[in-house]
Amino acid sequence: MAMTALEGVGRQPLLGLGLRPTYRDATRAARVGASDYSLSWNDDGSYHALMATGIPFHEPGVPRLGPMGGAEPEVNFFLQSTREIAVAARTNVNLWYSRISDPTLSLLKRLRDDNSNVHRSALDELFVNELLRRQFWRIEYEEELGAPDFRLYDTDSYLAGLEVLSLFGRSDWEAEHYQHARIADELNRRLVADRWFIHFEIIHLDREPPIRKLADWVQRTTRALAAEKISVMHDEPIPPATFASEGVLLKFDFIPRTSTGELSADRIVGMGALTGGFVNSGRRLKVALTGKAGSKYKLLGGPYAPCVVLHDFFCSDEQVLDALYGTEQIELASMKWQRASNGLFGLGKNGGKNQRVSCVYVVKNWLPWAPDEVTISRFDNPFCAAEYPEPILQPQAWFRRVLSDNGSIHLDWQAEI
Question: Phi, psi at residue 266, to the nearest 5°?
Fold first, then answer.
């Protein structure tokens, strides 16, 4: 197991008596448990904490088999859950981390971060490293300041650079989900699913709802439904009810359980927040990719590709095509569909745009406990300065130059890979 020294962590207070550093001291570089480090004493009585960098997540000591809360930091799944999929996820992540160089422990710290986006971005980089190492003997992660995330070598010959980009959902939708999830988590903690499941919609929320008062109201309302003998077989829809407090207005729907008579381990609030609005995944992807177009990286004169890991469920292949090749429009003169010149690729005033970018990879459906279910697509830049090596990341789908039956060349999905 690799060991990394954390300098200046503490000092021996009395000659001959060892003092273990405090949890706070030992976590200045990363969130760790007591078994994650050992001590190395210096001649002057100071010590270094030697961090064992091979185990990001230990098995929890307390069983937790239930689902995670919607507003919980996602890292808690690795830190606390003892479900079978969590065990598999920890096993994979710990193994993958042992195969990547992280001398400053910055990746380890991000893997354990309470901010779910930071945590997921670190997992994405770790997973892409694992995908790359299946094909290359030498992969340099964050090789120097200004380098892309990964530099790939064939022995000593430089092949290409690759930068990981995690694309999350719309920030306003994420905020609405979190707001809803915080209330749902509190109700699930205080109430049990006896005869009813509930779903609620936030109509107005200027302040934190009075959770105890809200939970009591939900309990009284469900008891009133039971007293009215509204059963599972009731044909009429159950009218919604509204909870109102100062600065708070929530609309509740009540769904009868199909089986009753004993307490349930199910959460009383099952559904998440309902969000509405226009999907803008393609526009946000283009903005994010423009910042990763290569101008700020040391590319060593070789091919370069951003690798987008999607956490935005609304980002379809069409959204990706719009972001890269421009939105579809109809040319009035010919009444034919064509793409506008507003994509990351295409022709600009001075020729091809963003020629540093050889292609863009898109990674979907990857799960830490089922990594083989991942799907990878590749989208080529027809005006790139350097072609990206074909074997890298081995996509299942490839949008590139193809030869038509009439002999013309156009961009389309390759029929077979």
Answer: -65, 155
DSSP letter at 14 equals: B
Burial (CB count within 10 angstroms: exposed 0-12, middle 13-18, buried 19+), residue 143: middle
Chain-centroid distance, C-alpha 45: 44
**Distance (Å, whole) CA 257 – CA 268:** 10
Q: Which residue has the higher pLDDT, 33 or 287?
A: 287
Tens digit of each residue's pLDDT (9 = 90 or more) over 13-41 = 322 223 333 333 333 333 444 344 434 44
| Structure token pair of residue 255 | 């769904």
Q: Which burial class, exposed, middle or buried, applies to 34 when counting CB atoms under 10 A from its CB (0-12, 13-18, 19+)?
A: exposed
Tokens of 343: 């994509």
Helix (H) or strand (E) holding 164: strand 157-167
Contacts of 17 (CB under 8 A, 6+ apart): none
Whole-Å CA distances, 149 to 105, 111, 214, 384, 391: 15, 16, 48, 20, 19
Q: What is the tens place of the pLDDT at every residue in 141-194?
A: 999 999 999 999 988 899 999 999 999 999 888 989 999 999 999 999 999 877
Q: What letter would DSSP give residue 415?
A: S
- Please state the pTM of the whole predicted model: 0.80
Residue 47 bridge partners (DSSP):
10, 41
Beta strands 375-380 and 304-310, pairing class = unpaired
Q: Are 25 and 11 in contact (CB under 8 A)?
A: no
**Separation CA 341–CA 150 (nearest Å):** 30
Dist. CA 354–CA 381, nearest whole Å: 9
Rounded CA-CA distance 126/100 in Å is 8
- C-alpha distances (whole Å) from 339 to each of 2, 15, 324 are 51, 75, 10
312, 168 Cβ separation under 8 angstroms: yes
Distance between CA atoms of residues 151 and 145, nearest Å: 12
